[in-house]
Amino acid sequence: MGDHDDLRKFITDLAVVHGRVVLSSGREADWYVDLRRVTLHHQAAPLVGRALLDLTADWEYEAVGGLTLGADPVALSMLHAAAPTGRALDAFVVRKAGKAHGLQRRIEGPEVAGRRVLAVEDTSTTGGSVLTAVEALREAGAEVVGVAVIVDRGAGDAVRAAGLPYRAAYTLADLGLVA
């Protein structure tokens, strides 16, 4: 099996949780995909990085990140997966709100102004979190080349409507889940 198949197995075995839950969008579902069980797992995290680098291999970007918390381990996995290939890829974290002390930065990490960046998220239903990150990145002077997620729960239309290319490593159908 390759990275993509191996990662799918980790997702279905570790991240898919059955039972009634309320999503961040306010919608209710009979199952939840808790991707932090995968993105923070010692064996699965490297697969996340390689899978998303492969998914976006034809996009040119210098840094990757998104709204904290879902995007943080995804961006770090990509940063670490890129390093052995010789690719210089920085990561950044977008805060939900600006900091009131210190440097008062909303985007932490290397400067994004004037750079081509990729916005990522672990999973997205409405696109709200990743579009919040995109707005902050644009305000900071970054050029957002696209959005990539591990699992798409339906955000693609909203992200594309905002004028951004959108890719997902897996759809709900890929995971055997019904929307």
TrEMBL record:
Its EC number is 2.4.2.10. Keywords: Glycosyltransferase, Magnesium, Pyrimidine biosynthesis, Transferase. InterPro entries: OPRT, Or_phspho_trans_dom, PRTase-like, PRTase_dom. Homodimer. 5-phospho-alpha-D-ribose 1-diphosphate binds at residues 95-96, 99, 101, 121-129. GO terms for biological process: 'de novo' UMP biosynthetic process; pyrimidine nucleobase biosynthetic process. PANTHER family: OROTATE PHOSPHORIBOSYLTRANSFERASE, URIDINE 5'-MONOPHOSPHATE SYNTHASE. Coiled coil: none annotated. Orotate binds at residues 125, 153. NCBIfam families: pyrE. It is an enzyme of class 2 (transferase). Belongs to the purine/pyrimidine phosphoribosyltransferase family. PyrE subfamily. Gene3D superfamilies: 3.40.50.2020. Residues 108-157 form the Phosphoribosyltransferase domain. It catalyses: orotidine 5'-phosphate + diphosphate = orotate + 5-phospho-alpha-D-ribose 1-diphosphate. Its cofactor is Mg(2+). This is Orotate phosphoribosyltransferase.
